[in-house]
């Protein structure tokens, strides 16, 4: 009778048991654009790590490149196009994620037809997309997923900063904006889910919580709540941290201005700062933009916040050279900046974005737009420097949230107003923190052993258009 030997099978099994596991594939992830894009990259990295992938610490060591893109302006898109071409030349599998493939799939495919694609609302497909790409099979995941972007695993870009998306999409129909094309209508996440995310991040050591979305101003209008209620709930979370609210359009502010201002006044955990883009000081231009607010709505909101909290910081966005903008329109924008004195003005020359109504309209001549851009940049720097000058001599605490380079520590040094002989010293040791009004405070010589997330008592001795200069008080 023939008896089959089990020895070969046993030997094979033993070899398999003793075999070293295959090294996990490493994925290089890079992100561009707004804080929501940064949050998406953190969650993509967290989901990939949970699925067994390693997140590469350098592009060279990665087996696959993944880029989270932004397409808000043509200059940004040009940067994305250049970067996608660079990554494509490396010969590694490539995943293009974020707004650009969702808003302009054809553009991405013209650059690399073999690249896998993933939209801003399909990050829960990250592991499948990466796995497919590594296997040599292109995958396109641009469909919107019902998965909310809270309480997902993360790999943080900055260990002390929690970026929490509170909603996706918006209720606006701005004629220049391609982000709406990519992200669609408002989808607010539940306050309880957001609070649980904040609790977990604070427990994980985060000292700053950034609440971000396409438009934080309209948060909750689809689920029967609003931003003021969310802020109170987040500030009720125990722990040593501060909350920063992201971009909110002015049109939703008037109906909640009292409760919103009270949330800032009554909670020490709130940075006294908002990013409220006005885009133009001309109501005629604002109507063409379909912004849903007037210049006065913005001015009134700034006035009320500063009436109740004089040190309140305002950041805004302005587009110059929008189709049909006249010199008189631009002069109104200059007048609004002089009146409201924003601490930060993000200025863009109008750029036509594919798929938007304004892309079809006659543009302002490029030389005119350039001249207006230079004029408003000059004014914005003057205003910012004036606002920062009020902090000279201030003594108080900052939260250290960034290590900075020599160039950053001495930015705008030629125009820096300070009376300290050591203003440019210890460039490599410099750190930056934020005070209660979210002002960037640069400390050239922090105490030995200072870490990200530490609180530091400082005295401001100088300022520029960009930051405050301070020395640590031991």
Task: Describe the protein's architecture and organization.
The protein has helices at residues 7-18, 35-50, 74-88, 99-103, 105-111, 126-134, 179-183, 191-203, 227-235, 257-266, 283-289, 295-308, 327-340, 366-389, 406-409, and strands at residues 26-31, 54-55, 64-69, 94-98, 116-118, 140-141, 161-165, 167-168, 187-188, 208-212, 242-245, 273-275, 313-320, 344-349, 395-403, 417-418, 431-434, 440-443, 455-463, 468-472. With 474 residues, it is an alpha/beta fold.
Total DSSP helices: 15
Q: What is the second-level CATH architecture of the largest domain?
A: Alpha-Beta Horseshoe
For the largest beta-sheet, the strand count, sense and barrel status come to: 6 strands, parallel
Amount of helix? 25-40%
Strand order, largest beta sheet: 2-1-3-4-5-6
Describe the protein's topology.
Layout: H1 7-18, E1 26-31, H2 35-50, E2 54-55, E3 64-69, H3 74-88, E4 94-98, H4 99-103, H5 105-111, E5 116-118, H6 126-134, E6 140-141, E7 161-165, E8 167-168, H7 179-183, E9 187-188, H8 191-203, E10 208-212, H9 227-235, E11 242-245, H10 257-266, E12 273-275, H11 283-289, H12 295-308, E13 313-320, H13 327-340, E14 344-349, H14 366-389, E15 395-403, H15 406-409, E16 417-418, E17 431-434, E18 440-443, E19 455-463, E20 468-472
Parallel strand pairs: 1-2, 1-3, 3-4, 4-5, 5-6, 7-10, 10-11, 12-13, 13-14, 18-20
Antiparallel strand pairs: 8-9, 15-17, 15-19, 16-19, 17-18, 19-20
């Amino acid at each position: 009778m023939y008896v089959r030997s089990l020895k070969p099978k046993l030997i094979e099994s033993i070899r398999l048991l003793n075999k070293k596991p295959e090294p996990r594939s490493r994925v290089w992830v890079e992100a561009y654009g707004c804080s929501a894009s940064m949050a998406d990259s953190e969650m993509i990295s967290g989901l990939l790590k949970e699925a067994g992938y390693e997140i590469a610490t350098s592009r060279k060591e990665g087996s696959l490149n993944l880029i989270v893109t932004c397409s808000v302006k043509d200059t940004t898109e040009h940067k994305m196009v250049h970067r996608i071409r660079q990554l494509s030349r490396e010969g590694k599998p490539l995943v293009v994620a974020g707004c650009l493939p969702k808003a302009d799939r054809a553009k991405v495919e013209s650059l690399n037809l073999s690249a896998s694609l993933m939209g801003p609302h399909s990050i829960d497909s990250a592991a499948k997309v990466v796995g497919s790409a590594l296997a040599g099979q292109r995958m396109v995941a641009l469909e919107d997923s019902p998965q909310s972007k809270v309480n997902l695993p993360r790999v943080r870009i900055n260990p002390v900063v929690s970026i929490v998306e509170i909603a996706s999409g918006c209720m606006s129909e701005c004629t220049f904006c391609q982000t709406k094309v990519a992200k669609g209508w408002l989808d607010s996440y539940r306050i309880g889910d957001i609070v649980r995310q904040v609790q977990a991040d604070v427990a994980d050591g985060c000292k700053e919580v950034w609440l971000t979305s396409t438009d934080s101003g309209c948060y909750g209008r689809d689920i029967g709540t609003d931003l003021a209620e969310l802020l109170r709930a987040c500030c009720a979370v125990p722990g040593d941290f501060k909350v920063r609210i992201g971009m909110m359009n002015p049109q939703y502010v008037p109906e909640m201005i009292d409760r919103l201002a009270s949330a800032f006044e009554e909670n020490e955990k709130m940075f006294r700062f908002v990013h409220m883009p006005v885009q133009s000081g001309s109501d005629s231009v604002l109507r063409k933009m379909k912004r849903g607010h007037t210049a006065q709505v913005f001015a009134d909101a700034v006035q009320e916040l500063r009436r109740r909290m004089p040190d309140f910081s305002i950041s805004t966005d302005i587009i110059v050279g929008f189709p049909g903008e006249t010199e008189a329109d631009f002069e109104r924008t200059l007048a609004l900046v002089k009146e409201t004195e924003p601490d930060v003005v993000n200025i863009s020359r109008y750029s036509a974005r594919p798929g938007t109504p304004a892309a079809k309209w006659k543009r302002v001549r490029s030389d005119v737009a350039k001249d207006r851009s230079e004029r408003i940049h000059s004014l914005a720097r003057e205003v910012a420097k004036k606002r920062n000058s009020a902090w000279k001599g201030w003594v108080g605490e900052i939260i250290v949230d960034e290590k900075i380079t020599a160039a950053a520590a001495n930015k705008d040094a030629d125009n820096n107003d300070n009376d300290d002989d050591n203003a440019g010293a210890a460039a490599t040791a410099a750190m930056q923190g934020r005070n209660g009004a979210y002002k960037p405070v640069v400390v050239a010589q922090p105490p030995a052993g200072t870490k990200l997330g530490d609180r530091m008592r400082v005295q401001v001795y100088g300022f520029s258009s960009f930051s405050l200069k301070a020395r640590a008080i031991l």
